[in-house]
Write a structure and sequence with these properties.
Elements lengths: L11 H11 L1 H7 L1 E5 L1 H8 L5 E7 L6 H12 L3 E5 L3 H5 L8 E6 L5 H8 L6 E5 L4 H13 L4 E4 L9 H6 L8 E4 L2 H10 L3 E5 L5 E2 L9 E6 L14 E3 L11 H18 L2
Parallel strand pairs: 2-3, 5-6, 5-10, 6-7, 8-10, 8-11, 9-11
Antiparallel strand pairs: 1-4, 2-4
Helix pairs in contact: 1-2, 3-4, 7-10
């Protein structure tokens, strides 16, 4: 390994790791974010993510799950940094902190780059128009990928896509999805110009989601958990996931998931 003695909590690299986990401003200033846990780090190393360095609790470095990840990292030329026992557990952002973490370069695209990356492939684009809960945002990234979507756009007022909870909730989908950060107005305009039909998901006021053709180039705007759709999206055609009257409404992540899989069903039916 690159270092024989584990880094202490006073080491500047560990202080920066803590800042990247806890401070959105620090992440964006450095253009880097943190990936926690051997499973997600291994996933990042197997994808197009540029991993800069890996930190490992020195007590866990020889355990099989961590050792495999470290071997892969070193084979790719990624610096591996052993950390004194217990330090990462104090730095981590989870209730059961992970003994292995990585720092990676941010990977988002401009809206123009995201549309170009999609090419002519079908599959829904999810546009997060103020989704503020990191668990919901990460789940939507995961559901978009699972439903065949290849781009998720984080627009005005949405949570930081590099928030540790978003990264964890995406379960690796963040590393394999075209991630875009842009203003909502610009995103809608450019998606329409590129031939996308853009809908907005509403809890009650739209027509049923399954009544629309979602098999082609479509984009779905999802609003804030409490306030609903932003003003910019309220003139778009509205779609709704029908539910029984006794239930208030679906969580935004659940509604987005249902729509993604309806789009997938339609694409597979028309093949």
């Amino acid at each position: 390994m690159a270092e024989a003695v584990g880094l202490s909590a006073r080491n500047e690299a560990i202080k920066q790791l803590r800042r990247l986990l806890r401070d959105r401003g620090a992440r964006w200033d450095a253009s880097r974010f943190v990936i926690e846990g051997p499973t997600l780090v291994a996933d990042a190393l197997a994808s197009h993510v540029q991993v800069c360095e890996v930190f490992v609790d020195s007590d866990h470095a020889l355990r099989a799950e961590a050792a495999n990840v470290l071997t892969r990292a070193e084979s790719l030329g990624v610096k591996v940094r052993p950390v004194a026992p217990g330090v990462l557990q104090r730095v981590g952002s989870t209730s059961s902190p992970q003994p292995l973490m990585a720092v990676a370069q941010m990977l988002h695209l401009t809206i123009e780059e995201g549309i170009e990356a999609l090419g002519t492939e079908p599959g829904p684009v999810l546009v997060l128009g103020g989704v503020s809960d990191p668990g919901n945002a990460g789940t939507l990234v995961r559901s978009a990928a699972a439903g065949g979507g290849r781009m998720v756009l984080f627009a005005d007022g949405s949570v930081d896509p590099y928030n540790p909870k978003v990264v964890r909730a995406s379960a690796g989908a963040l590393f394999r999805t075209a991630l875009v950060v842009a203003s909502l107005r610009s995103a809608i305009d450019q998606l329409v110009a590129a031939g996308f039909e853009v809908f907005a998901a509403s809890a009650t006021r739209g027509t049923p989601h399954h009544a629309h053709d979602l098999a082609g180039r479509v984009a779905i705007v999802l609003g804030n958990e409490a306030r609903g759709l932003p003003e910019t999206a309220r003139n778009l055609p509205l779609i709704t996931v029908p539910i029984d009257a006794e239930v208030d409404s679906l969580n935004v992540a659940m509604a987005g998931t249902v729509i993604c899989f309806e789009a997938k069903r339609q694409r597979e039916t028309t093949r």
